[in-house]
Amino acid sequence: MAAVPFRVGFGEDAHRLEAGLPLVLGGVPVPDAELGAVAHSDGDAVLHAVADALLSGLALGDIGQYFPDTAAEWKGMDSRVILAKALELVRGRGYAPVNVAVVVTLDKPKLGPLRAEIAASVARLLNLPPSEVGLSFKTSEGLAPRHVQTRVTVLLGSIEG
Ligand code: C5P
Ligand code: MG
């Protein structure tokens, strides 16, 4: 692969929501969530999409290849481990994230009050300043009330020379 100064990545994730489960987004537990993510891991749809975006920028596949959701050892796992692995693979190829743009579609609760906390958490995990983490929150307008969906673009910059 010829070295280019920048590469773009895109990731997506969705989880079904059910009562009585925790909702964690970007490493931050959402305090007022009546519904939480049904998942093999902790179901953090933001970190899963960020990790896939990182991998996609270098055509390294997706997180399911590194953390199969059939493997008992990954049950209930902290998604920060998944993100750390994706980051390590990207760095191993000589790139690091420059900025990320995250769109979360969730009807309830409102995430606006958590924007700074989620941005700080994602930024910390990516070793970026919070100013490089853009967060947009959208409802599904009632079309998918038991569903969380996340889409992420990332710009990767060469860290060589
Ligand atoms: O989806 P919609 O455009 O109706 O969302 C209106 C606004 O509500 C968004 O621009 C966002 O600021 C906020 N929002 C939020 N948390 C959500 C969904 C939307 O803070 N879960
Ligand atoms: Mg997921």
From TrEMBL:
Renumbered to this chain, the signal peptide range is none
List the residues marked with site Transition state stabilizer.
Answer: H40, T139
Record organism: Deinococcus cavernae
Its quaternary organisation is: Homotrimer.
HAMAP family assigned = IspF (MF_00107)
Traced from the root, the source organism's taxonomic lineage reads: Bacteria, Thermotogati, Deinococcota, Deinococci, Deinococcales
A GO BP entry: terpenoid biosynthetic process
This chain is encoded by the gene named ispF
Reactions this protein catalyses: 4-CDP-2-C-methyl-D-erythritol 2-phosphate = 2-C-methyl-D-erythritol 2,4-cyclic diphosphate + CMP
Q: What is this protein called?
A: 2-C-methyl-D-erythritol 2,4-cyclodiphosphate synthase
